[in-house]
Amino acid sequence: MKKFLNRFVALLLCSSVLQIQAETIKLADNAPNEYVVVKGDTLWDISARFLQSPWLWPKVWEANAQIFNPHLIYPGDVIYLYWQNGEPRLGVKQPSGPTGTVVLTPEVKVIPRKEAIQTIPLRDLRAFLHDNQVVSQDLLDNAPYILGGKNQRILAANGDRVYARGTLVGDEKLQAIYRPSKTYKDPHTGEELGFELHRVADVVVRGFESETIKLDVANAVEEVRIKDQVIPSEESALNTRFTPKAGPELENVEIIAVHNGVANIGQFDTLTVNAGLREGVSVGDVFAIFNRGEKIRDPKTGETLRLPSERAGELMVFKAFEKVSYAIVMRAHEVIKLGDELHTP
Asked: Fewest CB within a 10 Å sphere: which of 7, 111, 151, 310?
C-alpha cells in the first residue's frame, strides 16, 4: 500500500511539473522593453514581438483599469515589459499631450472604438465569410428558396427581380443568395458535420406577399438559379475583438479542407477543421499543427509503424460553427497538408 501511495504521489508531482513546464512563458528573441503600436499592427504581431508563444498573451497582459475599454489597444499606445514575482508581464501606457510624452493615464480616456487594433488582419477574412459559411441540414430545409424571376426567367443577374418562398431568418438587410458547394464529413466517424455554402449574389428585400418575398439581385458573382437559397450573410458575424489563447486538447482533430485550392498550405491560408462549438472550440483558439507521421514497414520485423508527428506551425480559429471551424494559418515552419493533426499548443 505504501509503495502504491508513493507511486501515486510521484505521478501527481510529475503531472504538476509537466503542467508548469507547459505554461512556462518564454520571451521572444530580442524582445523589446517597450513597443509603440502603429497603425496596421495586429494583436498577434505585437504578442509575437514579446513572446515565443503569442497565444500566451492572456497570461502576461495586465489591463490598465484606469483606461476605458482596457483590453483594447490603439495606435500610439506603448506596450511595455516588466516583471512581477519573477514572471514577465505586459502593460500599456498611452501618449498624452502635444509633446508625445508617455504617461500612465490618470483618468478614463474615451477613444473611438473603430481605431483599436485587430487581433489578426480581418479585411480578407470579412470577404471570405461574406462568400462562405457552413450551415446545418435544418437551416437548409427551412431557409427561403428562389422560385424564379420576372417573365418566368430561370436565371437572374444584377438588377433583376427574383422571387423566393419561405420566411427570412435574421435581419432582412443582411441577406444573400447562397448555393451548397460542399458537404463536410468527419474523416474518422463519417458523421455529417455541415454544408458549406458559397455566395451567388447579395439581395435587397423589396417586399412580401403571402409566402413570397420580392428580391432585387445585387453584386452577383454567378447567375442566380431556381432553388438557390436566401440565408443571412456571415460577414457581419465576424468577431473583430478577441484574444489569442491556447485551444483545448481534442481527439482526432485535423485539417479537413483548404480554401485556396492548393495541396500545400502556408501562412495566412484559410482552412476548415473538424471541430466546432460542440467540442468547445471558440474564436481565438490557437492550435499547433503537426504533420502526421508517415507509415513505414519495419525492415527487420515487417511490422507497419507510424513515425512520430512533427510540428509544422500554428493556426487560429476566426469563426466557429457547430461542428466545424474556419481557421487561418498564423505560422508555418514546414509545409502543411490536409489531414495534418491539431493539438493544444
From this structure: 151
Grid cell for residue 27 = 520571451
Digit-coded pLDDT (tens) for 73-114: 888 889 999 998 888 999 888 665 444 444 434 343 444 444
- Structurally, the chain folds into a number of domains equal to 3
**How do residues 263-296 score in pLDDT, each as one tens digit?**
778 888 999 999 999 999 999 999 999 998 888 8
Grid coordinates belonging to 313:
506551425
Q: Enter the C-alpha cell of residue 297.
A: 514497414
Q: Which of 219, 236, 253 is a domain's end point?
A: 236
Residues 6 or more apart from 295 whose CB is under 8 A from it?
A: 304, 305, 306, 307
* Residues 229 and 250 occupy one common structural domain: no
- Which domain covers residue 259, as residue numbers? 245-343
Q: What is the DSSP letter of 27?
A: B
Specify whether 87 is located in the same domain as 170: no
Give the chain's residues under pLDDT 70: 1-23, 63-71, 94-114, 151-152, 235-238, 240
Instruction: Tell me: do 232 and 139 sit in the same domain.
Output: yes
Phi-psi region of 74 (alpha: psi -120 to 50; beta: other; left: phi over 0): beta
**Domain end (from 90, 117, 144):** 117
Q: Render pLDDT for 107-127 as a digit per residue (tens, 0 to 9).
A: 434 444 447 788 887 777 877
Tell me: do 191 and 265 sit in the same domain.
Answer: no
How buried is residue 218: exposed, middle or buried, by Cβ count under 10 Å (0-12/13-18/19+)?
Answer: middle
Rounded to two decimals, the pTM is 0.80
